[in-house]
Amino acid sequence: MIHDLTEGKAQSVLWKFTLPLFISVIFQQLYNIADSVIAGKFAGENALAAVGASYPITMIFMAIAVGSNIGCSVIISQLFGAKKYGAMKTAVSTTLVTAFMLSMILTVAGVLGSGAMMHMVNTPDNIFEDGDLYLKIYIGGFTFLFLYNVATGIFTSLGDSKTPLYFLIGSSLGNIVLDYLFVAIFHWGVAGVAWATFLAQGIACVLALLTVLRRLKTVKTEESWQLFSGSMLKKISIVAIPSILQQSFISIGNIFIQSLINSFGSSIIAGYSAAIKLNTFTITSFSTLGNATSNFTAQNLGAGKTERVRKGFIASVEMGMCIALPFFIAFFFFGRQMISMFMNSDSEVAMETGIQFLKIVTPFYFVVALKILADGVMRGAGAMQMFMISTFLDLILRVVLSYILAGIFGTLGIWLSWPIGWTIGTAVSLMFYRSGKWQSHQIS
Question: Closest Cα to residue 176, out of 337, 344, 27, 343?
């Protein structure tokens, strides 16, 4: 169903819109965690480390997909809020055409360059072959991943957060079943993990695209619309390119950090791999709420309802704190139990590594949630310069401090860079939000 986010009480509208998205995150992260759990439990510590070593590289490809999702959803939301339905359909078709072409180019480049990328992050020899194989298969299915994320962005920009949930539940459950079948029963190792994701994502992508096209037919408009528009692509790119760069630079920063971590050996890699999957669950939850805030902001600015945006931000902060609390309790107080899901009892070095990481970063979940939500308002308003400054400041601090502090404290120094970067980045994001200058950046 298509929903107008510009009517009704801001708090209740945002809660109803965001809840299905948050449930989607739970299922999405469950199958991401399942990849590592099944690899670690049934294929061993090296398999877990191999999947973990390639993780920041896969995140670059995911970053491009997510950035495109954000770019198209902000513009489509603004056009939908302004009731410019013909232009909205042009934006949707232009996005789909561009996404398909770009994904094909990146797939070829990624498969051919997978080995070089694994060398770039200093992957240890004992896990290099498995890591490279996993990466090749993952990138081979990138077109599915890309188009699925774009379709999700289209759904949410039209106020529909339930349809993506249904697809994600099916995809996630299918992925977990295929993970177990390919790894535990067929003993395909890391290749089985990758193929499970490939197949589950492919089916979800096809079904999502068919539903998007059918849904758009129900939107009646007397205006003409185009299959592809260069001027519309330019509008989308104003938000999409900074969003892609933001997501990509975070992933590139994580590659530098992963390269540093890889120099400490496969046990440290395995422990970090388990902990970062749990941490990603939390951050992705905040990001999903931030994306919902962006869509809410874009629709309401398109309708000229600025005050609703402020009310929506307050509501999203309340939701963010509610999300942060259970993650903090689970990971800080029950870190050993959480990490033990990924590995067997003989992996003590890996276990202690993961626990130490969680102890250091989890108290700052309440801080980083504020940053991501303030960024969501700026992105929804099209204030991309402010958005980029706060993001890159956090990223640069984390990468630089990781290398400096690692030389003094070892891996402990790497973990300490997270809360420092988050805290300073949050202060800058809130400063930009409170300035109110984002209100003058509406694109549509």
Answer: 27
- Helices and strands, number each (H, E), in the chain: 16, 0
Q: Is 231 helix (H, G, I), strand (E, B) or coil?
A: helix
> Encoding tokens for residue 360?
């250091």
Cα–Cα distance measured from residue 190 to residue 276, given in angstroms and rounded to the nearest whole number: 18
Angle between helices 365-381 and 266-302 (to 10 degrees): 40
Cα angle 5, 221, 211; round to 5: 65
| Burial profile 77-88: b = 16 or more Cβ within 10 angstroms, e = fewer | bbbbbbebbebb
Q: What angle do CA 76, 79, 83 make, to 5 degrees?
A: 130
Rg (CA), the chain: 21
Closest CA to 306 of 294, 315, 297: 297
DSSP class of residue 438 equals G
d(CA 238, CA 383) in angstroms, rounded, equals: 10
202, 259, 262 from 35: Cα distances, Å: 17, 21, 20
Task: Quote the CA–CA distance of 413 and 63 in Å, as a whole number.
Answer: 26
Nearest-5° angle of CA 280, CA 212, CA 150?
35
Backbone angles phi, psi at 347, to 5 degrees: -100, 60
Q: Which amino acid is at 263?
A: S
Type of residue at 326: P
Q: Which residue has the tokens 């209740």?
A: 12
In 3D space, the residue among 273, 303, 332, 341 whose CA is nearest the CA of residue 55 turns out to be: 273
What's the pTM? 0.70
The angle formed by the CA atoms of residues 312, 216 and 72, to the nearest 5 degrees, is: 50
- Per mean pLDDT, which of 215-224, 248-257, 401-410 is the most reliable? 401-410
CA atoms within 13 A on the CB side of 296: 34
Check whether 247 has a pLDDT greater than 80: no
- Using alpha carbons, list the distances in angstroms from residue 10 to 14, 155, 293, 316, 360: 6, 20, 11, 10, 35
CA angle, residues 399, 425, 389, in degrees to nearest 5: 85
Report the pLDDT value the prediction gives residue 2, as an integer from 0 to 100: 62
